[in-house]
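Case study 2.
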Amino acid sequence: MKKKILVVDDSATIRTLQGFILESAGFEVQTASNGIEALEKLYRENFDLIVADINMPKMDGLKLIQTLREQDIYRDLPIIIVTTEEEEEDRERGLAVGANVYLVKPTDPKKLVMNVKMLLG
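Prediction:
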C-alpha cells in the first residue's frame, strides 16, 4: 500500500511540483494551501508524512506543526519543512516546533525524496 503524503504550500506551482516529484517516487499525494486546510484534511484521513511551507495565509507552517505536536495522535508524524526561509534562526525555530527535516527552496527533488524515504523507513 502506498504511503500518503500531505503537501502544504500556498503556491499552487510548488504544490503541483512537489506532488509530481513525490508521486513519481511512488507515493500517494494530497495537497492543502494553508495550515487550516491541512488540519481539516488530517482530521478526516490519515497521512504518513507532511511536507509544509512556513509562509502561508490563515495558518503558517510553524503554527501548523506546533498544533499537531500538541496532539498525541500527531506527536510522531514525520514533518518536513520546505521553505524560502534560509537563516539559521529560521531553521532552529522550525526544528524547535517539531519538524524532523528543514529544507530550503529550491529543493533538489532527489534530496526531498531521500528525506521522505528516510523518515518513512
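The first strand starts at residue 4 and ends at 8.
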